[in-house]
Amino acid sequence: MYSETAGTRKTLGDVDVIYHDGIYHLFHLVLPNHDFIAHAVSDNCFSWRRVENALFIGDPGSWDDSMLWTMHVTPNPHRKGSWRMFYTGLSRRDHGAKQRLGMAESDDLYCWKKVPVAWEDRRSELPYELPLRPPQPPFEQDMQSCFPLSPDREHYESEIDEGRNWVSWRDPFYYREGARGWLLAAGRVNHGPIVRRGCVAVMEETKPNQFEQRPPLHHPGLYDDIEVPNLFKINGDYYLVGSMREDAKIRYWHTEKIGKPWRSYADNVLLASGNYAGRITNDERGVLLWSFFTPGGADRQTENLMPPPKRIARLPNGQLEVRTFEGFDSLVDEELEVDKLTPIKSVDCQSDRTKHDGSFEMNCESGFQCFVMEEDLSCFRLRAKMQMLNDGKCGIAFRLNRENHDGYYLSLDLFKGVGQLRAWGSGPDGAGEETMQFRTLQAGYWEREKRGEAEIQLIAYGSYIEVSVGNRVLLSLADQTFHVGAVGFNLESGRLRVCDLRVERFLPPLQSDEHLANG
User: Fold this and answer.
1) Nearest CA to 439 among 295, 309, 271?
2) What is the Cα–Cα distance from 64 to 320, expressed in whole angstroms?
3) Phi, psi dihedral angles at 194 (to 5 degrees)
4) SS3 of the chain: helix, strand, coil, percent, to 5
5) Are 268 and 253 in contact (CB under 8 A)?
6) Residue-by-residue DSSP string for 22-78
7) φ and ψ at 232, to 5 degrees?
8) What confidence tens digit (pLDDT) does each residue in 151-183 have?
9) 238-293: per-residue pLDDT in tens?
10) What distances in angstroms separate CA 4 from CA 56, 165, 279, one per listed residue?
11) Based on C-alpha coordinates, what's the Rg of the chain?
12) Residue 481: which pLDDT band, with cuts at 50, 70 and 90?
């Protein structure tokens, strides 16, 4: 995982990952100052090393001399062996109120050079000459260039006196099919309710490095912005992915042909709230979905990190499903033998037993009980089929303190298809109301195949926690409240059967969440 330390007043923002020659190249924003685009590399998607920063804000007078925002790196279709980075820039001239798109090029993914732009330096003239001053303007100028790209008034909001008094034109994504290429962006149509104008804008590449604007690719008529758009194709169907600021979720739409309407399934959420700015990458095994995770609240510029990616799969009906990254298999240290699950506290009417088929049955007639393994665990993967034998409540508890029972509680409603993860602990004695510390971290829903049954997978790896039902990732988040403790199943007025229980210990992360602030 990847993060910046809070002590630097920096955190990770929007990410973009490209896979080349066995190496994953991560490019990301650095918040809150947005003054450069960072670059890190990995061969396993778990351990990362920071390398040369890719781009910096322009010198004063440049079109991008205020901030750099989201980028997208892609092979250059016009020059084999080279790369293009499309990125968002803000100018001091208009106080960052207008977003524009620029481009940089590289032959090795490490050294980047911004392309010439049709931009004039309008700073005030100096009344004196400065010795050794570099040539002016402080950027390469080409008044025939289409960069920096800005929205046209025919299709989009293009001036700061429209809509929200700032111009959305950011988060580029380049898509190419055959001999044609398109550049997507987060834009806004110029009509309709102010907070419903968010759209996926599109520009067509009419000749190398020249783009002309087209009508929006998709305008749902519901969102303020559709941030960080992605377009890809699986088995003949097109999929459009975007992130919504309203609830910090990643959603998608689909169509069988570009130009036909984009449709939404009843469940079009790819990742639960807190996972944001999703980006896709293709490697040898298919499509990966990346994002950064933010703990929540109005401030999304602190304590962010990048979780491991998810694998995107297409179901027979065309729906997408995010699945656990197969790289977790490489982290297994050993599989643990679970011979018994023992009540964590003494309460009447509890029992646990091992049946001849290797399953466990647990019973808690009244009150709340956890049936836990003998060994405390920190990093692990638990897989099991859970079946409620009555109408009570069940879940999984992990990293529990055996004395005060502080830890993580995953509540699972196997009848309605609801999962909720909570950090439930206690503060110092004598702290009054502050003694009870209860936080709901994330919730998700799934479609039940059988009432009262589900195949569950739980991953705890450092601060990262992931819950899957069947093959689908339901919860994905990071939290540092609890680190090690008992693992088991909890019941409240319930009878539970657990079959096919497998528990594997993971090797711990080689890097802390803050590693790449220094590394």
Assistant:
1) 295
2) 37
3) -55, -45
4) 5, 55, 45
5) yes
6) TEEEEEEEEETT--EEEEEEESSSSS-EE-S--EEPPPTTSTTSSEEEEEEEEE-TT
7) -150, 170
8) 999 999 999 998 889 999 999 999 999 999 999
9) 999 999 988 889 999 999 999 999 999 999 999 988 999 999 999 999 999 999 99
10) 18, 32, 20
11) 26
12) very high
* Mean pLDDT in residue range 101-108: 98
What type of residue sits at position 423?
Answer: A
What secondary structure letter does DSSP report for 98?
B
* Three-state DSSP class for residue 249: strand
Q: Is the distance from CB of 242 to CB of 228 less than 8 angstroms?
A: yes
Distance CA 198, CA 223 (A): 5
Cα gap 487→387, rounded to integer Å: 18
> Whole-structure pTM over 0.90, yes or no?
yes
SS3 465: strand
Q: CA 457, CA 503: separation in Å to the nearest integer?
A: 10
Tokens 């095994």 belong to residue: 285
Q: List phi, psi (to 5°) of 8.
A: -85, 0
- Report how far apart, in Å, the C-alpha atoms of 129 and of each of 133, 140, 286, 305 are: 8, 21, 58, 47
Which residues face 455 on adjacent strands? Answer: 385
Closest alpha carbon to 505 in 487, 481, 479: 487
Tell me 295's DSSP state: -
Give the span between the Cα atoms of 122 and 105, in whole angstroms: 26
Contact 242, 229 (CB under 8 A): yes
Residue type, 28: H
Structure tokens at 195: 């907070």
The CA distance from 197 to 191, in Å, is 7
* 42 vs 381: CA distance, rounded Å: 23
Q: What is the mean pLDDT of the chain?
A: 92
List the one residue out of 229, 219, 213, 173 whose CA is nearest residue 198.
219
Q: Which residue in 246, 179, 175, 250 sits closest to 217, CA to CA? A: 175
